[in-house]
Amino acid sequence: MLVTPNLEKLMKLSAILLTAALLIPALAVAAPTPAPTVTYGQPQPNDITLAELLGNLDNDPDPVVTCESSAKEKNTQCVPKYRFSDGVDQHSTQKFIKWLEAANKAGADEVLLEINTPGGSVPDGFEMTRAIEDSDAPVTCIVDGDADSMGFYILQSCDKRIMTPRSKLMAHEPAIGGMAHGQPNFWISLADMMKAERDALAIHCQHRLKISLAEYHKRTDGGLMWWLLSDEAKKVGAIDGTAKTVKSLHKEMLHRKPKKN
Q: In 3D, which of 4, 8, 1, 3 has the Cα closest to residue 150?
């Protein structure tokens, strides 16, 4: 589903402001200070604008991936692991893409991506999908929790698709949120766009399944949500296999015989 990417920023900002509101009175009681001199019209040296504060929330440190720390024993592969446990939005996907680039630069043999997401933005999910497909190191994805909506779409781009028995998948047609207004032809064009979006997403979601595109549409169109547990997911080709836990799969990957160049 299409979501507003600024929600997480606003939640973080609210937490910061609430913390400040709680701390400032406590500091005033503990250590009284002279009243500050207020000057109007000119910002003070320590002032920060709302735009700057929101921008700082996006400045995640560059990820560091080293293969030496992943291979503690001889003849083990370098298999960095990333946990994607968030909604699919610009911040979460760009954070993963930067990490994946760092893993490839470090010389990873394979990458393990753990997925637990309710889905989210179509454009941002597409960028994450492209990054997985373009990765030099094969990307194995394991669902531990949910891979819903765009999570299902992203899963179908992984080189190997695994899920734990306690997990579930969900596929459906896209939806658009928010408030919109316009003339009649605008609504006709919007409906045409949504149909095209639905069909394009379905092609990718279905291309590795053992059912036809028509059958996929039958299970997901008209507001239907197709929920799959591991047995059905394996039967229809939505996954390649199962693993008991993320840890056990990662251990297995680390001890695979490294491929010779």
A: 1
* Check whether domain 67-254 has CATH 3.90.226.10, yes or no: yes
Q: What is the pTM of this model?
A: 0.75
Q: How far apart are CA 17 and CA 193, in angstroms?
A: 40
If you ran DSSP here, which 8-state letter would residue 106 be given?
T
For residues 139 and 150, give the distance between their C-alpha atoms in angstroms, rounded to a whole number: 17
Burial 168-184 (b: 16+ CB within 10 A, else e): bbbbbbbeeeeeeeeee
DSSP state, residue 257: P
E-strand stretches of 38-126: 81-84, 111-117
DSSP string, 83-99: EE-S-BSHHHHHHHHHH
User: Hey, where are the domains in the chain?
Assistant: 7-57, 67-254
* Terminal Cα-to-Cα distance of the chain (whole angstroms): 42
| Least trusted range by pLDDT, from 65-74, 87-96, 214-223 | 65-74
pLDDT value of position 24: 40
How far apart, in whole angstroms, are the C-alpha atoms of residue 110 and residue 258?
10
Which letter does DSSP use for residue 138 in this model?
A: -
